[in-house]
Structures
1.
Amino acid sequence: MSRRLSLQWHVFGCLLSVMICLAIWHVYCRGAFNITASHLPYVAPHEAAKVLNQAEYWNEALAQATQIHRQQIEQIETLATWLPTEVSFEELTNRLHESATTFNVNLLSVDQGNQIAGARVGVITCTAIIQGSFAAICEWMESLSGESQPLWCDAIHLSPHNGGTNAANACEATITLRAPQSSGGTLSERLTALRAIDGH
Amino acid sequence: MNTVHLSYDLIPVEFRNEVDARRIRGVWIFLIAMLAILLGHFVFTDWLRVEVANRCARLMAAKVGPIIDIRAAAITQSEANLRTAKSIDQIQSARPDDSLLQTLASVTVAAKPFHDDILIDSIDIRLPLEEHLATNGVEPQSQTVAVVDDLVPRVLIRLRVSDPLVIESFLEALRDQPRLAEVDAIVDPHSGDDTQQELTIYAVPQATRVIP
């Protein structure tokens, strides 16, 4: 009876020790627990110390960059004041007629040119034929470049009207004008988009 | 040893087996307890390792994570700012100015001292355009030269002079103008009568900005 008992203890003991040994082996090799915070960005300790020291610097850098960004948005707003999204030819003609009467030049005709997509801004071109004194024409052209929405004058053909002399009052000028607009310009379109993104 | 052996013989077999069994049980229990302690040790060590790693990661994430985010945001923003600033500058350079008027003015300023001797018939000014610079610079195609030639930037002044001696000094005056370069004159051969000489002056306008 007791011999069977000791045999039972042997069997039980062997089984249990083997199981515990297996468990030890498993824990030793594989580990019993998992790192739950593994999804968090791992930073090596020495780098973490460096980054912690730079906290002030990066805060300042971000504040500065944001400040610059805000200033740039303001700059883009000011760009938008002279660079409308789109200029219609009728509007352009009306503006030219208005300023022509103000500066006492005779605007004979305005011919619509084409729309050109530039790398920076788009332009709509037109050719204007005007008559007036040389001084008046110069003043008119100056007003064109000084307006709130200024125009480019890229070419002029100036000759005396009525076959006049050098001091003649009446000159005739054919002027090619270019009104900048942001649509059609690769850069300005991108900036307008930036402004729109920031606005919303 | 002998006495022990002798004494065993005196003990009933049943009792001896029971003592053996108890001893065997004790040995196994001791072994199992040792193994269990070993297992416990390993489990505890592992738990400690994981716990430390987790705490470390959480701490790092809480303290360093925001700074890393700020750093990334600052770098991205300043890079974007650089690009935007460049674009703004380029668009700013497309703002219309009075280049044409300045060029015209430089011609009239140069002509002023010779007011009595020269008669300007026509002034033709064409400023360089962005598109021409692009086509001229990138691919100079021979078949488009004729088309482009009509659009080449130039200043062309047709005038009549009463005194041929004035021509040189007028050209000098034009060359002194910063807005004009490569000033050259061609005298019209079949126009020279006694009193007047017809003249065409060519120059290249110097624009401060490229017209879009």
Note: Chain A touches chain B through 84 residues (CB under 8 Å).
2.
Amino acid sequence: MSATEPHGGVTQGDFSERVAGALADSHLRAALDNATRQLGSRRILALASLDNADTVRDQARAARLNALAHLPEFLERFEAKLVANGAHVHWAETPQEANRIIVEVAKQTSTRCAVKSKSMVSEETHLNEALEEAGVDVVETDLGEYIVQLRRDRPSHIVAPIIHLTKQDVAAVMQQRLSVPYTEDTQELAAIARRHLRKEFLRAEMGISGANFGVVETGTICLVTNEGNGRMISTMPRVHVALMGIEKLVETMADLDRCVKVLARSATGQKITVYTTLVRGPRGPRDTDGPEEFHVVLLDNGRSRILAGETAEILACIRCGACLNACPVYRTIGGHAYGDTYPGPVGAIVTPGLRGLHDWSALPHASSLCGACREVCPVRIDIPRMLLELRREAAPHAEPQSLRPAMKMFAWVASRPRVYRAAAKAARWALRRLERNGWIRRLPGLAGGWTKSRDFKAPPGPSFQEMWRERQRQKGRAA
Amino acid sequence: MSAREAILARARQAQRTGYLPKPDGAHDAGLKPCATTETMHGNVAQGFSPAIAELLPRFLKELKGVGVESYVEDSDDAVRARVREIVGNRAALAWDADRLPYGVGSTLTGAAIGASPRDVQAAAEIGVTGCHAALAETGSLVMLSGPGTPRSASLLPPVHLCVVRRADILESMGQWFAEHAAAIASAANCTFITGPSRTADIELTLTLGVHGPGKVIVVVGP
């Protein structure tokens, strides 16, 4: 990632440009189609392996909503438990503050190299750039994120960061950046990454992770990974820093169990990820490994503001990515078009919430409101409701008066069948003049608003009434 | 005002706005009493009754499902023989002998342990551990960090051999949380291992052994 400054807002124009770029990229569309389809069907199979999937989803939802409803009390209890367990707790209102805290910890611990497991929150704060500016080498260790870092790219999916790349892309960047022979064998590519990253795990002074959950009653951080990098970064370096959003809490271990049950199933179609790690604190006095220092950084960055508004429910999200895989818009345009850390339906709500609706008002419109996201959400977040709410908030104040004459005219036409038929016939004739291959790229006048971001289907041949009359006529002739 | 106070103040203010939906009462009936592990234990304990006889086959089936090779042995001697055969003359990194069940430690002469230098540990070709519990529902191995039970043994080598006592097989993570809260609270780290290290980041192609062991073998003893 080369940008030092956080990205600016996405105007409708920027967004349309990115979408046009994504749509023109047939390679991207094939990769997305294949990946989202597979992840979607794996999720269904995995949920079927729970005899009471619906109940567990309700329980996971209740666990998350309960934590949000008691957030201030729970944060204080969580902090007290963490401190009692020997952790250092830091609070950050902004991304800059969070980065400053972590850079400070790096300085105090003489850290020259930091290894990171996957953390969306650190993408949000642009932590890597901050650490690099302070002279710390930062190495992403999740295979996908490592490749993103080698390519100076950005992740395009919450769970599968390089969903937009083929193995040829991966082979090329490894060959170029790591000076290894070109190979498209994924097992070999993973082995190369293992060798390179193993050295980093062993030399790094600091490990950085996110947190999938924080358990209030025990002061525990839960990390779920499949590769084992979450275990590596929380075991090998002397210092472990976990950067987490303040919304990530669950009250009890029983709540954690319910959330873990639906997280892996919804994310990758596994019953449980290969490694589910509960970090309670620094190593014990007689332990031979594990970090000597454990820091937790609690980041707000707009979350408490979201909690006070119409989109509060989105904070219950457990970042499984199921809504991305289910979304017809995400499946077509991919993650980069959304322009910020969180893509897909969840991103269309989170991004305006964290960064301000004014600059990001294009995102809530990137949805057909089909409701697939709500269907698949393991904690049943009502995403379409909030997309509509954000659209309403962002809309310029409508003036119904200006619509009135037009509606009156329509009513006059529509209540006179002869006039209506004639008008429809004329409209069809006019539209067909604009058609190319069944579609109309640009409508004239006021109707042009419709075709700004999508094509308009040209009317088919004869109307139903014309076809019906023709049919009756032929029947009459046959009889 | 510190960042902490500012965040907490805003969160308190947010609580008064009432935008957060309430969990649907119909779906959540009977859920509320789960405030502590004690009550959870009370609620669900009846649910965790299957006999070991039922748990073992389920555990083995789940292990197979996640790509773990398993052996079931009926005597201490047979477990030791099996471990000796699997380890062969590979350089091993093991838990301390007194933390391994069935006297397995005696078969591992010259194995590195948690107290060995890190480069020696990192060079090991096979990790040999016990576990604190095993979960039938998911085929998971539960590891608590502590003296003599280094995390490195189940993490650094390319192969992980885990010796499981039959009586340690539990139903699920929920049962482990409910019945072993004190043990979990005493360890800095509790890890559930379910199969070999894997990734599907490149074109969703399953690839094993990215950072952790690419091969996991379980030997269940009497």
Note: Chain B touches chain A through 79 residues (CB under 8 Å).
